[in-house]
Amino acid sequence: MLLLTFMVICLVNHVNAQDVYAPYRQNWLKKAEQYKPVLKETVKQPFGIVKLEKDASAFQGWKTVSAGGMDQLYNKPFNKGTSGIVVDFGEHMTGYCTFTLKTLRSDMDAPLRLKLTFGEVPAELATPFDPYPGGLSRAWLQDETVTVSVLPATITIPRRLASRYVKIEWLGSSSNFEFGFSDIQFKATTSVSITPPALAAGTPQIIKDIDRVGSNTLKECMQTVYEDGPKRDRRLWIGDLYLESLANQYSFKNDGLTKRCLYLLAGLANDDGILNANAFEEPVPHAQKSRLLDYCYLFNVALKEYVTATGDVETGKDLWPVAKKQLDIAKMYAGADGMMDYQKAEREWWVFFDWKDGLDKQIPLQGITIYALNQTYALAKLLGKENEVAEIPAITKKLKEAAHKNLYDKKTGVFVSGTNKQVSYGGQAWMVLSGVATKAEAQKALKTLPSLPDAVRPGAPYMFHYYVAALIESGLKAEAKEAVTTYWGGMVKKGADTFWEVYDPADEFKSPYNFFPVNSYCHAWSCTPVYFIRKYPEIFQQ
Amino acid sequence: MLLLTFMVICLVNHVNAQDVYAPYRQNWLKKAEQYKPVLKETVKQPFGIVKLEKDASAFQGWKTVSAGGMDQLYNKPFNKGTSGIVVDFGEHMTGYCTFTLKTLRSDMDAPLRLKLTFGEVPAELATPFDPYPGGLSRAWLQDETVTVSVLPATITIPRRLASRYVKIEWLGSSSNFEFGFSDIQFKATTSVSITPPALAAGTPQIIKDIDRVGSNTLKECMQTVYEDGPKRDRRLWIGDLYLESLANQYSFKNDGLTKRCLYLLAGLANDDGILNANAFEEPVPHAQKSRLLDYCYLFNVALKEYVTATGDVETGKDLWPVAKKQLDIAKMYAGADGMMDYQKAEREWWVFFDWKDGLDKQIPLQGITIYALNQTYALAKLLGKENEVAEIPAITKKLKEAAHKNLYDKKTGVFVSGTNKQVSYGGQAWMVLSGVATKAEAQKALKTLPSLPDAVRPGAPYMFHYYVAALIESGLKAEAKEAVTTYWGGMVKKGADTFWEVYDPADEFKSPYNFFPVNSYCHAWSCTPVYFIRKYPEIFQQ
C-alpha cells in the first residue's frame, strides 16, 4: 500500500524532544542489519514469445497466446516490423533484466533506441501509459528507454523490475544494418531458500493452485525486507509484514527476515515511541513519517506471533518497549464510556483498514484496539511482563462491553458502525476477532452479511484476510473455504501468477490510484491463503 | 556525413582473395593505436537558465533569452510546474553530463522520472522529435529518459553527448515529497591541448568570430579520431579528416591525431587495397564497408599535406602503398579519350562531392581525379617515389586536355557538366583546383557564376570549402574573403557556437535527412575557415 492523497499528521519531533528509545535504538538497527539476508539469485530464461490479444473474457480484457519459441526473437533482425514482440518468462520474477544485442548484417552506423516495458499482467503491456492519469508517480510504471551506441552490447536495465513479460519496441536504428537479440534473461532475487512441503494428497486442485500462487507472491515479496510489492512501493509496511510473517511461518520459515523487519521498524520509530507505518532500506534505513493507527497495533500482533512461533523470547523482550508504547494509542482515544473516539483518531491519524471508499472506521477501530490489547497481553505473558500491563484486561473488558452495547444491532444480528449505522464485512470481522461477538453472534453476523446488499464489502485482499480469519474464528469452516476458493480462486482462474494488490471480482480495473496498470499484481497482503491453507489443513486440505 | 539511401557497391572480398596490404596492415593498426590521444577532460559548469522563445528572425525560428542564474534550478523543487527548464552552458561541449538530485522535503516514496534533451541549437529543444520523420536513426537525437529510485543520486547519462543546452522535463514523481537539482555539469573531452595564436591585431571582428567558431568546431570534433560530428556520425570520414587536418595544421597542431587517423584508415582498407570512406573505433577499430570514390582520392591529398607540414617522410613511406593503390580508380575509369567515365563510376561507387540533389558529377569527378593525380605525384616526389608513378604526368596531361576540350564552354566562360551541360559552383571549383582552367579562365568562370541563376550552388559547407579554395587559387582574394564572411559569417550572425553540417542561407531547415534536428550543428567539414584565415593572413587578417 502507499499513501496517496491522505495527508499524514506528523507530530513534530522537536529537536530537543527526548528519544524514548534512546537506550535501544542503535542496538535495534544493528540487529536489523545483522539479520539482513543475502539474496538468492537465480538466472531465469524466457519461456517463449507471446502475442497480446484482446479478449473480453480475459482478465482486464487482454490475454496472451503463444507465438513460438525464443527463436522467433533471437538472432532475427529486430526492426520496426518486429517491434512490439512480447517475451514471456512463464512466471513472475523480481530482479534484473539483461539482454545482448548483436549486429546481424552490415555495420552499425548509428545508435539504436529501444523501449522495454515490463509487465506483471498482460493488460499492463497493452494499455498506453501516457498521458498518465494515475495518482502515484508515473515512474512506478516499468517502461525504460535505452540508447545503445556500440554493438555487441550486453545491457542490464539498472532498476530492479518485477514482471513476467517484457515487451520490446523498436524506436529507431539505422536502416543500413540489422541487429538482433540474444540471451534475454532475468537475475531473479528472493530471500526464500526452501520449498514448503507439499499439501496433503487429497487437497482440491484449486486450493493447491491458490497455495502455489500465494507462495509465489510471498516469495517474490521476500527480499531484504518483507516488501509489500516488488513492483510498486517495494518497502516494508507493518500491515504487510504482519500477513507475510504469518504466511512465512507456515511455508518458508525464514524467521530471520521477520526478526530483521521487527527490529528495523523499531529502530526507525519516532522519538515519541510511535512506530512509522513503513520503512525504506536505501540509501540508508529510514522511515517514511507515517502514523498509521491500525498498523501500530499490528506490530504488536506480529511480534507476538513471531515469539510464539519461534520461542525467541530474547527478541520479544528486546522489542517489548515498542509494543508497550503502541498501547498509548488505545489509552489516548478510549473514552470513559469505553468507546474509542474514532472521529478524533481519524483527524489525528491515518486510520486505514482497507482500500475502500466510505468504509466507516468506528467498528474496525474499536475491534482492532481490543484485539491488539488482547494480543499484547498474550505477548506480555510470553515474556513474563504481564505486570507491566496489568491494566489491559480491565481496559479490554470495558471496550468489549461498550462495543457490544453500542454497536451490536440485535434485531438484524450484525454490528453497525458510525452515525449512519454502516454494516460492513470488515466491521463484522473485527468484532469477531476482538471477541466482542459471541460465537453465535459471530456466526449470525457473518452469515447475515451476504443477504445485505448494502453491506460494505472488502475493497482489497488485505481486508479479505481479516474476513476469512473471522470466519475461521467463528467456526464457519465451509464458509472460510468457500471465501478463499471464490476470492483468491477467482484470481487464479483469471490467470494470476501472483496475487494482486487490488481485486474486486466486479471491477477488474479498480485502482486506488486511478490507473489500473500502476496497481501491484504481486502484493504481499494477498498471500495469506498460504497461511490459512497450511495452518488449517482440516478446513482446506481435504 | 552519413550514407543515407545510397547503396554502397561492395566488391565482395572472397575468402581466398589476397590481402594486398597483408605485409603492412597489422603494423598500421598498431601505429594507429600508438598515436591514440589521451583525451583532455574539463569539467564545465552551466552558465544559467534560459527560456526558449519563438522568434521568426532567429535561426530556425527559436532563440533563447536569459531566465536567471542556476539558483533558478538548484535546490528548488522540481516538478510538473518547473518542467521544461533549459540549462545553458554557454558553449558547445562534447562529453558526459552528470547531475545530482536531492530530496528537499519529506520522504521519497516513489521513483521519479525525468527526460533530458541535449541540444546544440535552440530549435532542437523546441521541436518535438516524435513521430520521427527523419531518414537516419531516431536514436541520434539526444533525449534520454531516466528513472531514479533512490535519492540522493548522482547520475551520469551513459551516452556521450554533444550540446550546449540541456532541457529538463518532469515525467513523474510522488506528490508526497519534493526533490531538486544540484551540480549539473559536463565532463567535456577533446584531444586539443593548445590554444592557437591570436589573429593579427587588425583582423576584422567578423573574421575573428569566424575563426573562433571554426576553432571550436574543430576542437569539438577532435576526439580520439577526427570525428565528422560529435553529435551525429561521430566517426572518422576521409573527407572530414582531410579538411580537419588542414585546419589543424594552422591551429592546434596535433599532428599525432592526423597520423593516427591516416594509419587507421590504411589499416582498415579493403583487401583489394581500396580505402573505406569511414571507420569506427568501437568496439574494436573497424571500417564501415563504404567505397566513396572522391574520398579515396582525398586520402592521398591529406597524406601529402601531412608529410609536407610535418616532414614525417617515414609515415609517408609507410602509407605510400595505399596512396598508390587509390590511383587505380583513375586508371579504371579514364577512357582512351581522356575523359572519366563518370556514369560507370556512379554505377559502381558512391560518388559524393556534396549534399546537393541533382549535382552533376562529371566535372567534379574529372577535376578531382586530375587534382588527386597531381597531389599524389607531389607526394611521390616528397618520398622519392616518383619512379613508381612515372606515368602520372602523362595521364594528368591527357585528362586535363580532354577536360578543357569537352567541358569548357568558351562562349559563356564556364565549365559545363554532363548531358544537360549543368553549370555548378562545385564543377568550376574542381576545374580550377585541378588546373584545367587557366588563371584567366578560372577568374572568368568563378566571377560569372553569381550572374547565372541556374548555377547549382554548394549544398553544404563541405563543397563551399572547395569553392573558396578555388577562389584563392585563382587569385580572387576579395571574393574569397567575401565568400567566407558571407557564408560562415552568416552562421556566426545567426548565433552559431560551432559551424553546422548543413547551411543554406535560404533554407534554415534544410536537412539531407528530412528532419533538421538530426542535422549536426558542430560539423568538422565546416571548420575550414580556420585554415583559410590562418594560412592566408594577407587575405583575411586585414
Question: If helices are DSSP runs of H or I spanning 4 or more residues, what is the number of helices of chain A?
Answer: 16
Structural class of chain A: alpha+beta
Mean pLDDT level of chain A: 95
- Approximately how much helix is present in the residues of chain A? 25-40%
Total domain modules of chain A: 2
Q: What's the helix-strand series of chain A?
A: HEEEEEHEEEEHEHHEEHHHHHEEHHHHHH
How much of the residues of chain A is beta strand, in percent?
15-25%
CATH fold annotation of the largest domain in chain A: Glycosyltransferase
Protein name (chains A, B): Bacterial alpha-L-rhamnosidase
Pfam family, one (chains A, B): Glyco_hydro_78_N
Domain Alpha-L-rhamnosidase six-hairpin glycosidase (chains A, B): 207-534
Domain Glycosyl hydrolase family 78 alpha-rhamnosidase N-terminal (chains A, B): 46-188
List the helices and strands and how they pair.
The structure is a homodimer of 542-residue chains.
Chain A (H helix, E strand, L loop, with lengths): L24 H10 L5 E5 L3 E7 L7 E5 L18 E21 L6 E8 L2 H5 L16 E6 L4 E4 L4 E12 L5 E13 L14 H17 L14 E2 H12 L5 H13 L10 E3 L5 E3 L4 H18 L2 H21 L8 H7 L13 H22 L8 H16 E2 L4 E2 L9 H9 L5 H10 L12 H13 L3 H17 L35 H7 L1 H4 L2
